[in-house]
Write a structure and sequence with these properties.
148 residues; mainly alpha; 7 helices; 69% helix; globular
Length: 148
């Protein structure tokens, strides 16, 4: 079902970080990119492109909450708590949702350990790639991500 997601994600990453070269990571891509791509793919495979887009958008907002709390030296609830709030009722007890949930947390942890990674940029690339993969012609999630 999501055989094009990897291609679309590569295209989005290439447009953000520069075109791929013969070495990995390509161009100026953060080292963690190689490791987060499979987790992003799990999210899309388990949820489908449109719900995955919702989760990627929620992850962007959750990351912003984490950064704001760090900058304010405020109490930190953590990415998972903010992600749960942003996703809303879309996180049920099913195996597919549990797999997507764990993949999102793992991808975020890898990005946070890579000083060169920008979680917001990587989640945005995944959001845009999931929109391409769904065959959506509207730009609503893209516009929401750009304005957020």
């Amino acid at each position: 079902m999501t055989h094009n997601f990897g291609l679309y994600l590569t295209l989005e990453l290439g447009s953000h970080y520069g075109s791929p070269s013969d070495s990995w990571p390509a161009g100026g891509w953060p080292a963690s990119t190689e490791h987060v791509i499979p987790f992003f793919t799990i999210v899309v495979n388990e949820l489908g492109p449109d719900p995955a887009g919702h989760w990627f958008l929620a992850a962007i907002e959750a990351h912003k909450h984490v950064v704001a709390a760090e900058q304010a030296r405020d109490y930190q609830f953590g990415f998972a708590a903010h992600l749960h709030t942003e996703i809303g009722d879309d996180r049920g007890p099913s195996l597919d949702r549990a797999a997507a949930w764990e993949a999102m947390k793992a991808a975020y942890e890898l990005m946070r350990r890579d000083a060169a990674a920008n979680p917001e940029a990587l989640f945005t690339c995944a959001l845009l790639a999931s929109g391409r993969n769904s065959g959506r012609t509207d730009e609503a999630p893209v516009a929401a991500a750009a304005s957020a």
